[in-house]
Amino acid sequence: MLRRPKPTDSEADLLREQQRFLTSGAPSAASVVRRPDKRRGEAGEGEGHSGEDGGSQRDVVTIEDLPDELPSLTPAPPKKSRFKASRVTFEDEDAGETLDRHDSHISAVLSRIVERDTSSAPISVPVFTGLAFPKVLHRSETGNMAPPASTEGKRSIFARQIAAQRLKEAKSSLHCSPEAAQTPGCGEQRLPPETSMDTDQCDAPGDRLRTVSTPRLVSGQGLRVSDSSGETMRIHKENQAKLQAMSPSEILEEQKKLLSQLDPRLVEFVRARKAQNVPTSPSPSKHPEDKSSQHHPSESESSNAAVLLQKPQEVEMEAEKEEEEDQPPPPPAVTVEDLPVRPQKQWVHMDKLEPEKLEWMKDLPAPRRKGTKKAMQARFDFAGTLIPPTEDLPTHLGLHHHGEEPERAGYSLQELFLLSRSQLIQQRSLALGTLANILSKARAGEYASVLKGSIMSTLLDAGLLFLLRFALDDGVEGVMSAAVHALNSLLVCRDDEECLDCTFSWFGGLAVFPLLPSAQEEEDEDDEGLDESMKETAKEKEERKSDHDVARQDVVKGLLKMKLLPRLRYILEVVRPSPRVVQDIMEVLTRIARHSSSSATQVLDCPRLMETVMSEFLPTSWTASSSVQPQSVYGLPLASAVKLLRVLATSGRHACARLLNSLGVRERLSCLLSAEPTELLLEPSEAHRITTEAYRLWAVAAGYGQACKLYIDLYPALVKTLQSAHRVLPPSDPLVPLQLQRLLALLSLLTQVTHTAGCHQELQAGMVSSQGEDCPPPPPVSWGHVTGLQASLLGHLKGLIKSLDNPVQKDGSLTLIPAYLVYLEAYYHQLSKQNSFKPVETLQELELLTSEVLLPLMHHNIIQGLIRNLKSSSLVCNVQSSDPGPETIPNLPGLACPGWKDRDGLVSSSSPFPLLTGLGLLLETITGIHKGLCRKFTGFLLSEPVIDYLRSCSQAQPSLSHTRAWLLRHEHHLLYLLLRLAHRLVPVEPQVAIHASLYHQVALVLLPWLLPGSEYLAHELLSTIIFSKDFISEGQSGGPEAVELGELKLHEETQHRTSPSLQTVGALLREACVQLPAIRGCFLTYLAHLESSVLLSRNALLGRSSWIKSHLLPELTGPTLPSDWPFLPLVSLYERMGVSDGGGLSVEELPQGALQSVTHCLQWLLLLEVWREEALKVILPVAKIARLSCVFLCSSDLFLERPVQKLTWGLFRLLTRGSRLDSLDLNVPPPGLASFQDLFSALLAQYEAVSFGDRLFGCWVLLPLQRRYSAAMRLAVFGEHVGILRSLGVTREQLSIPIERFTSPPEDSLPLLRLYFRSLVTGSLKSSWCPILYVVALSHVNSFIFSQDAAAQEVETARRSMLRKIYYLTDEVLRNHLLLFRLPQQTSELGFDTYEQLPPIRAKRLESVLGVQDSSDDKGD
Predict the structure, then answer these.
(1) Alpha helices (H) along 596-735
(2) Cα–Cα distances in angstroms (integers) from residue 376 to residues 450, 455, 1087, in the given order
């Protein structure tokens, strides 16, 4: 075997290997071919040349797949050669021999040059002169030079002088004698070469014949004749003679033909030559004799000729101008007269007018007319105000610029983005500031009615987040400050924060929802098919995403991923910006902390961030500022910094403990609250804001049972503050609102401290019994520390009620009263749990409280006026009439509060919700202690505004979103408290019991509205009102009997026998009312998975502060219970049984108690369908059918049990009544399913497997086969599951659905009609087996074969074929049924009527079909 050469082989080794190769006779890897020399006329081997002169031949070696040259390193593709691409040349001669063989003699090269014929070329001899060469040129003489042609570009002064001299000589040569002028070559020989080659294609045809006397394109140079000019003139005269013999139209036609055939580049070349050679201003002495006889073509001909010779772009522009006739004419071009300063001849390079550079001097075009229908780009001024396109603003405002649409003032978003990356600092700052103003106005919803789409979504999609993040890294403080302000405008809505601060003192106001975007489940294809242990966790997926992907789903998460927090810390710590920037940063950090507990933890964990905030903006000591608005806020306490701490503390008790113990917040609280606001060496308003936020922060900490030792230390200061809080200030004092907020925050603090002190005894006993394990330690404050404040605060409340009559103090009193009521509720709620509780004294005290405080308050005309606003202020009742609200985007949720002070709502000054919620809380507590007091509040519950409000709520369908959830939970609290009061009054007060069904209806609709964090309210409703027989008054007042009478009346009207199972609805309802306690236990059992959430919610709502883990509510993913919760036991059982794809069951036996659970569930559904139909209207009818189908799918014999059979029959009868059946749309996918057809396929498989011909199951299968539903389900029965036709023996009496719903309108699906016909003819479908579908198939086939409607050829052929086959059927009964079918008839024995004989029109149709068949048979014979 031959080996490959190695680098170490010597020459002898290579020769030895060559000899071995030659002797082996192996084929070579390269072939030797003869390469011909084309220059010598040689041919290849295939052309018959011999091998002579072998010394001049070259050997060419070709190797496959070997590149000819190295790959190019530049992006451009390498040059290719036709010959070089297929082979590589190897030469063994030296370089000298190769050069001698390939290079030809120089004579061969020179022989290829063709010399020009210069025999007739004129030779000019230089004129001798005494002047210098070149002539000295003065600037004043430049005006006499020839102007440079626009196509030649820039020319030097000397070149222009030479061109002017040649032009002068050419003009002088035209003034020869008339004889010479008539001589063909006279003028041509003296013209310079440049002016002799020309064409005149732009002149009119008739004009060309008289003005062109010499050829302009052909000069005759290069012709090997003695008289070249004469030859060209002869050709020119022939062309002129041909043109004169042609009409103008023929000339234009030939012109078009030439332009279509010639290369456009050649036409451009000729035009360029003409532009170079024709003088700009023709001499007036040229052809003077032709002036009088010159032919002027018509305007239409000249314009057409001009259009034909225009460029394509110019033609399109002309067409556009013709279409846009209504637009104003363009402004005239700038001329020399328009210039403010006239250029002088002596000015260098000022002799040429350049209009394109003078466009900016022209007046701006007029703004767009108002009648335009075309959408225009939005433009904004520096304040973010949208500028109308028709507004003509003055230019001194600085809003006009040289961008697109220079006539319009303002900047577009695209231009602002461009300016924000400018190299000029002022432009960057201006663009970022304008974007900040635009974002603020967009959040306020000012653009919603005038702009298409969402500005914030547009900006975020365009990369605003990254633009701001890059701008934060700018080294210029001004740009950095503008970027911080823009980021603040994007993230923070001050109206939202004001609303949250306003509701802080409400019941449950400490708790807030995290501002997380709605969860969007993303399918990860990479994890499909993997084991659970191998799949990526959510944290790993989050880390793998890019910044853009994270920001697209969640703006705050995207900013955190972009390292925003370290940058903000750097700005605060190193840059030390202005007060406004510090305020913006504090608000941004607060918004990030509101996002979620994890975001708040990141703020706490950011290195040196919180330390900087504490040391610089919450110092323990400071000096008074010399000005009202200091230049720097470093070293002074800030209210925004305290608020940031409060929001961080809301995220969890551990975060609050870190703030109190590690960051020194406890010392700051003591420092800020131990003195009056006037003693804090701060501006008065800022001092009030700081102390207010300090009280709120302390209240949050006390809500966890923390910082209570501070209460004991600052008790004298708190009492002093309470005593001085009710000083009457003039209404015009700006500190009045701030003092009210400060007092509300103090009352919230006292309420939380009271709850914590009430838990001291329970925690003390729990720690003793559990020996300290899994039990929080008791707080340092006990019940004795808080009892002394109750009398003082009760006296304050009485004073506030009296001050309601004073118009000056009315608004302040209405603001404070709810907080006092919430405090009293906390006090009495905890008092009843203490060992020191004295029942007799407490009952007397409560009676005095009711008679002296609560009843006068409720009957006050001011409070009655507020109660009348209950419905108008409700968020539940005003879903449709609510404004669209400010702009919000999915990845940056907000509360949509801008403008809340100017519109009705829960937070408005006219809203009764905070006062009624506090009053309801107190009534719930004191009526629980003193049962006899509840009767005194009957008038409140029966008042017309309250009843009207409850009726509206029972029919409302509120939507759920972040913008509504934080307020909806407060309204849910009030509804719950009204229902709790009704629960105490219904058993003992007959007047209240009259409205029991209304209260029950409200409880049923409220239950699926309750949001995360309100699980305890749901549990209480289920335990008390939902299943209470006192609220289902129909069960005690003859309701079941009334249903039975209705069934008997229906039986008399229909006059046909119904199934015995359908006549037992009254008895079933009576049994369900007896079983209400068991039904309640069944549902509570299936809701046991919510126990942990119920306990957390209970701790928060009942003030068990030491067990509260966080004031941040669970993520808002939806309501606590689904809207179809009454079907929960059925659906849960179906999921437990695990139905396989084929419809079979993986579990053969039902769990213990399953039958009883299903029975209770069906009893409850039957009760709701009969007496509380409105409560189930949120559930789609198709969803009800789908959920009830679980009765048949979750077991092989559950539907055969007698109680299940009865209840399901009753429900089927109710769901298939006329009005219900009309609203049932099975083409809509049920919630949780892709389509109803999938469920129907499972039902068919289950019916085939385990039904045993059950009539109830058969009715369930027949329901989707109505004509108005999808034909796919009927195809499934007659195609895939045709076997069920043998056992689907439901009779017309058992099916409560009219047969006309199956037979009308006639079927139009040809495949289904063929299946109908096949099942009838083959005997698969018989009247004795399946009477319903037998009538259906007969009706549709009969209508099809005798239809007179025009149809496609395929349909008509199928009709005729079916009719012929029916006529020749051997089964006479089926044949008569198919031919003589008339109409479905419920009372008939067969289920349909028949004709005695064929009607004439049908007989004629049958004869025509059979006649055609007979004639075709005859032709065949």
Answers:
(1) 597-605, 609-617, 639-650, 653-661, 665-673, 684-703, 709-713, 715-724
(2) 11, 15, 56
Cβ 226 vs Cβ 311: under 8 Å: no
Structure-token pair, residue 1231: 């919630």
Query: Where in 1095-1201 does DSSP place strands (E)?
Result: none
Residue 456 CA from chain centroid, whole number: 11
DSSP-derived secondary structure letter, 1282: G
Q: How far apart are CA 258 and CA 267, in angstroms?
A: 10
Q: How far apart are CA 950 and CA 998, in angstroms?
A: 8
Residue linked to tokens 């000397």: 158
The three-state secondary structure class of 431 is helix
Chain Cα centroid distance, residue 425: 35
Which residues, in sequence order, are CB contacts of 1338 under 8 Å at separation 6+?
1320, 1377, 1378, 1381, 1392
Cα–Cα distance for residue pair 1062/1046, rounded to 1 Å: 12
CA proximity to 192, closest of 178, 174, 176? 174
Say whether 1261 sits in a helix, a strand or coil: helix
Q: How far is CA 1112 from CA 596, 652, 966, 1098, in A?
A: 8, 7, 12, 14
pTM strictly above 0.70? yes
Torsion of CA 652, 655, 656, 660, to 10 degrees: 170
- Sign for the pseudo-dihedral over CA of 76, 81, 87, 91: negative
Phi, then psi, of 1382 in degrees rounded to 5: -115, -70
Single out the residue of 640, 663, 539, 662 nearest to residue 593, CA to CA: 640
Look up residue 122 and give its two tokens: 């004129």
Other C-beta atoms closer than 10 Å to the C-beta of 302 total 14
Token pair for residue 494?
């001050």
Neighbours of 778 (CB within 10 A): 21
SS3 1371: coil
Half-sphere exposure of 769 toward its Cβ, with a 13 Å CA cutoff?
7
**Which of 374, 375, 463 has the alpha carbon at shortest distance from 416?**
463
Mean pLDDT by 10 residues, the chain (1421 residues): 79 86 80 61 47 45 53 52 50 58 53 61 68 60 53 65 74 47 38 36 42 65 67 83 85 83 79 62 39 39 33 32 46 68 76 72 64 73 89 83 79 92 94 95 86 88 94 94 96 91 94 85 50 64 85 94 96 95 97 96 96 95 83 94 97 96 94 91 93 97 95 93 78 86 96 95 81 76 93 94 91 94 96 92 95 95 94 84 64 80 81 95 95 94 95 88 86 96 94 95 95 96 95 80 64 46 74 94 94 95 93 92 94 77 51 91 94 90 94 90 92 88 90 91 92 91 93 93 90 88 91 93 91 92 88 88 89 89 81 86 85 49 37
Task: Tell me whether the omega of the peptide bond preceding residue 134 falls within 30 degrees of 0, making it cis.
Answer: yes
* Cis peptide bond upstream of 1114, omega within 30: no
With CA atoms as reference, report the closest residue to 1328 among 1364, 1297, 1367, 1374: 1374
Contact between 634 and 616 (Cβ < 8 Å): yes
Q: Is 1031 exposed, middle or buried (0-12, 13-18, 19+ CB in 10 A)?
A: buried
Tokens of 255: 């012109």
Residue 164 CB: number of other CB atoms within 10 A?
16
CB-CB contact of 995 with 1025 (8 Å): no
Question: Judging by beta carbons within 10 Å of its beta carbon (0-12, 13-18, 19+), is residue 131 exposed, middle or buried?
Answer: exposed
Which of 581, 567, 693, 573 has the alpha carbon at shortest distance from 642? 693
Torsion over CA of 615, 618, 623 and 625, rounded to 10 degrees? 110
Q: Are the C-beta atoms of residues 979 and 1003 closer than 8 Å to each other? A: yes
- In 1216-1292, where does DSSP find H-type helix? 1218-1223, 1236-1250, 1255-1262, 1271-1275
How far is Cα 298 from Cα 295, in angstroms, rounded to an integer?
Answer: 10
The DSSP string of 246-305 is S-HHHHHHHHHHHHHHS-HHHHHHHHHHHHHHS-SS--TTSSGGGTTT-----HHHHHHH
